[in-house]
Amino acid sequence: MRRRRRRRQGLSMSKRRRRRVRRHRRFSVPGEVRRTLFEEIKASIKNNYNQDRSFWRPVLPWGGVFTIKAGRKAVSCTPLYVEIRLKNTCTIDGFLMLLYVILNENENFPRELSLHLGREFVDCFLYLMDTYSFTTVKLLWIWDKMEKQQYKSEVHKASLIIDLFGNEHDNFTKNLENLMSTIQESYCSNWRCPTRVQEDQQRTININPPQEIPHGNLIRLAVDELFCSRIELCEEHGCGGLREFSQRVFCHGAPPFVVLNMQHWKSEDLAYVPYYLDLSDHKYLLEGATLFNKEEHHYSAAFQIDGHWMHYDGLRNVNLILLNKPPEFLLLSSLVYIRATEK
Length: 343
What we know:
Layout: H1 2-9, H2 13-26, H3 37-46, E1 64-67, E2 83-87, H4 90-105, H5 109-117, H6 119-130, H7 134-145, E3 152-156, E4 159-163, H8 168-171, E5 182-188, E6 197-202, E7 205-206, H9 218-227, E8 230-233, E9 242-245, E10 249-250, E11 257-261, E12 276-279, E13 282-293, E14 298-305, E15 308-312, E16 320-322, E17 332-339
Parallel strand pairs: 2-4, 7-11
Antiparallel strand pairs: 1-2, 3-4, 5-6, 5-9, 5-10, 8-9, 11-17, 12-13, 13-14, 13-17, 14-15, 15-16
Helix pairs in contact: 5-6, 6-7
């Protein structure tokens, strides 16, 4: 009987999600609009009357409380807690919001991302965001993608407190499995070089500002330096040969989106942010960014939907605002680009 139940429960999450949405609409109160979160956001952009540029309800607010319906069995648990409290969630909030927008903007991206993060995770993530289950979706990321040593947890009275204070690249970007893994090979012209053939593999995309400030687009120059082929003097001691670097390529094909780690860049180096990049023979378009306020040690995010830029800050009461123009990227933590659709 257990096997049969498991098989019945083994329906794909996408099918279950569609059935729940249909059931939700079927039994909705007459005159009451039942939409997913993304549909609500798009509708608010389209029906932007009276210059009211804020979304009508909080979206993915900072922190969160999850109440456990444990019943009598909780008495035997040690230690006993009946709720989970989340703190300092801004280190994942902005990226979760960006991920939700990206997955809704392109119908093929959920399937592609499922190859890296798992189909069940992607379907469950979308369903929880669609239905405004914000604390649960954060717990999904914490328990499914993060390592326990990446966050602090303690039991205080009847609450389990999970504190995500830290760096968003540690809490989110590094947990994207092998999505952005790249590799670059190099060969030294000196046959006596002790490491004539080398391979450099990276799981994330970290670009550093040029040491010499040249004219032009600094971000694009830094990306080209990381990805493009080049020839340099070999750095092995006493070698003196020339090292030829091949083009850096993605290990598992071009991902649906990439995150550029910009935390080492200064605001004066960010006068111009490119709206597209060429990465390993693929074109990527700017979709959004995460911003870092050093004084508050707080992260927020900006992204665009149908060409309209929005700013998200989970710590504010009004936390999703439609912008009049693209934001100023002076406090960048990361830039997020999506792969352009092939025509």
